Batch of 3 targets.
Target 1
Amino acid sequence: QVQLVESGGGLVEAGASLRLSCAGSGRANGVMGWFRQAPGKEREIVAAVSWNGRNIYYADSVKGRFTISKDNAKNAVLLQMNSLAPEDTATYYCAGRFSAYSGSDYYTLKADYDSWGQGTQVTVSS
């Protein structure tokens, strides 16, 4: 199993930006996604990117504000979050799928991923 480590969370005011980073160990070059989980709610997909970086999915709630990108050479995936709002407050998790995938597919279900980070907290104050 690939180890994933997130960084970049924090406490910001509404309208601010944050960039989350997820680094993988070893051969961590797969299909990547970011999920988030707010207190009392289910973990939900935020964004996902195919192995080749060409196909990207965004949840409707973050379209136009968040950008996912991956750097295969560094085994890393980034989530740039702009115009943050209080409803974006959650623990953000990096997820990876490192087997049985095609170069152009992304995945939006939790069950599709085989590796998870520990999560990083993002808190947006109003």
Target 2
Amino acid sequence: QAQLVESGGGLVQAGGSLRLSCAASGRTFGTVARAWFRQAPGKDREFVAAITWTGGRIYYADSVKGRFAISKDNAKNTIYLQMNSLKPEDTAVYSCAATSRGDRIGYENGARYEFWGQGTQVTVAS
């Protein structure tokens, strides 16, 4: 069974940077797109960024545009999230997701994805 494993979370001061990674392992699947979502305590899960696997189209939430950058390494079956100019409101558990389906649901919608990682904690101190 395919697994997604995130790494790179931690504690950082406001204004700092972190780089998250999400590696896929186990049974391989034909990826259509991969994405990052986050969930802060007491809040709903929120879309952060997505990237299509073959075309490399990129989508960002307005809240992270200009600060975060999603990228991928097809050979390593890994996506990354470079997070700069971090703010306390970026504090959340960040999870990666993947889909192998062709679907009309937008990439910003969590229902689009059938594979999820367990998440990595990002804490931004003020």
Target 3
Amino acid sequence: QVQLVESGGGLVQAGGSLRVSCAPSGRTFSSYIMGWFRQAPGKEREFVAAISRSGGNIYYADSVKGRFTISRDNAKNTVYLQMNSLKPEDTGVYYCAARFSRFEGTTGSPYQKDYDYWGQGTQVTVSS
């Protein structure tokens, strides 16, 4: 069983930056594709970004491309989401997700159903 714990959320003004982190425990972190999703108030949870086991393949939602950066440090068992140029519409609960993969280069999926484990989420609020 993999437990995912997000941290780093908070309140920031529009145009600002924030970094959220996710530290899985219980299994070998480097065996998992990692993804970030978010859920705005009154909306369904949506894909934000995903990163392959090796970090070599990355996939972003169009809404965050050029502003957000996903990365991972397998030595520290941590995945990061650096968020720059934040907008009020980026407000929501940010969830970390993990998907086991046998292949280092497999690109992360934008579909929630493809992920095996989920964190509890961390709140990100962007004020205008």
